[in-house]
Design goal:
The protein is of the alpha/beta class. It has two domains: about 260 residues, Rossmann fold; about 150 residues, no CATH class. Helix content is about 50%, strand content about 10%. The protein contains 16 helices and seven strands. Strands 1-3-2-4-5-6-7 form a seven-stranded mixed sheet, with helices on both faces. Strand 4, helix 5 and strand 5 form a beta-alpha-beta unit. The longest helix has 24 residues.
Length: about 425
């Protein structure tokens, strides 16, 4: 018997791709006419091989199960003393519980999970994601690729129900089923928390039509029209197929986003003296700012410099930061005027007040559409502004460029 999570590749990566088949299918779902499986094709891409482990989620699904054989199997146990593992179809919600347990026990070491699901496998995925969000307020699933998934049900289930009326999976797949109504409603309610989801649908699909293969309130960029039917959409024949290209694009964007997130994390700052001659540091020293505030300013400046590099690598223009720099400088000037008029008494108080206000107004006046720029980085951005003599940012009254020149000369004499 195959394990619930069957690994295709396991090299202790931080991320895993999990492929989930649909109704009455198995891992052969992903194998094309050349006997090459989609996971194998994707692992031929260096960036995927270097960043992901890969596995299948296995579960039981048949049109008819073997639960009706209980009498005969019970007789066998009585006569021969053997156990009988009679399998039966269970509902999609129960399958999502099985997926949850399987991921927790087989994939607990992974930081990020990407689900690639076909047909009913996508509904199993959605139910799992929703339960995960309800239980933990977040989910390890960071990307969900939906391939011909009947999000609003399929009319085929109405016909299939005539063949297997008591099959709980077919019941759940019917349009307007209680299961689908609840999952779709919860999906909309959790729209700000669910992972990025891309919807692939087959233009020749007679099982799941376009309007049913796409969830509610989905933007154009998250829909991919494919010239496939319901069964060949998950088994591309070549790396040039539209499905393969789309999945490769989605995974490439995912990896780049991970790299960006990593680059935007606070970097460890080692005070080795390399920043001591920076203009923003000299301005703080001349104003006799407390050592702890100077050290904090060095740390935030250092991280702001790393942030700018990460943004450029991600494709942002430095002009995208202009509004934020302007608002930071405006905030500084408001407090500097209070300092000039005596409402703020000392240079140290001036620095503290501005830093506190940046933290307090991080999500309001200093809000930005660029992701992952927090209050600490914004404090560092203010020091970036102060690091130029073209910007009139000082921490003491009546300071000028001459004060910096005098400070440097006095320091150089002392060092001799």
């Amino acid at each position: 018997m195959k394990p619930p999570i069957e690994f295709v590749k396991k090299d202790n990566k931080k991320n895993i791709l999990v492929f989930i088949h649909g109704f009455t299918s198995d891992s052969e779902t992903w194998v094309n006419s050349s006997k090459i499986a989609l996971p194998e094709m994707l692992l031929g891409e260096d960036f995927i091989n270097e960043n992901f482990d890969v596995g299948y989620f296995n579960y039981f699904t048949k049109v008819l199960d073997f639960s009706k054989a209980r009498f005969s199997t019970g007789l066998i146990r009585t006569v021969f003393g053997r156990t009988s593992k009679s399998k039966k179809n269970i509902g999609i919600k129960n399958l999502s519980d099985h997926l949850k347990s399987s991921l927790e026990l087989y994939c607990q070491e992974y930081e990020n999970i990407v689900l690639i699901a076909h047909s009913m496998g996508g509904l199993i995925s959605k139910a799992f994601i929703l339960d995960d969000l309800n239980e933990n307020d977040n989910t390890k699933v960071k990307l969900f690729l939906s391939l011909a998934v009947p999000h609003k049900g399929t009319n085929w289930a109405n016909m299939g129900g005539k063949l297997a009326r008591k099959n709980p999976q077919i019941i759940d797949l019917k349009p307007l089923s209680s299961f689908l109504d609840k999952v779709n409603d919860d999906w909309i309610q959790q729209k700000n928390c669910i992972p990025k989801t891309v919807y692939y649908y087959g233009q020749f699909d007679e099982i799941v039509e376009e309007q049913n293969a796409i969830s509610f309130q989905v933007g154009k960029k998250l829909k991919v029209a494919c010239n496939y039917d319901h069964f060949d959409i998950c088994k591309p024949e070549s790396t040039d197929s539209i499905v393969y290209r789309g999945i490769r694009r989605d995974l490439d964007e995912f990896v780049k986003e991970l790299m960006f997130t990593e680059e935007m994390k606070p970097q460890k700052f080692i005070n080795d003296g390399k920043l001591d001659d920076e203009i923003f540091v000299l301005k703080l020293l001349i104003a006799d700012i407390h050592k702890s505030l100077i050290e904090d300013s060095k740390q935030t400046f250092f991280n702001a410099e790393y942030m700018v590099r990460a943004l450029v690598n991600k494709g942002y223009s430095l002009e995208d930061l202009n509004e934020l720099y302007i608002n930071l400088e405006r905030l500084y000037r408001i407090f500097f005027i209070k300092f000039i008029e005596g409402e703020i008494k000392t240079s140290n108080e001036l620095v503290v007040k501005i830093f506190e206000n940046i933290i307090d107004r991080d999500k309001e006046f200093l809000q930005t559409t660029i992701p992952l720029i927090d209050a600490n980085k914004k404090t560092g951005m203010l020091q970036q502004l102060a690091n130029s003599l073209d910007n009139d940012i000082w921490w003491a009254k009546d300071q000028s460029i001459k004060d910096i020149d005098h400070f440097r000369k006095a320091r150089d004499i002392n060092e001799k």
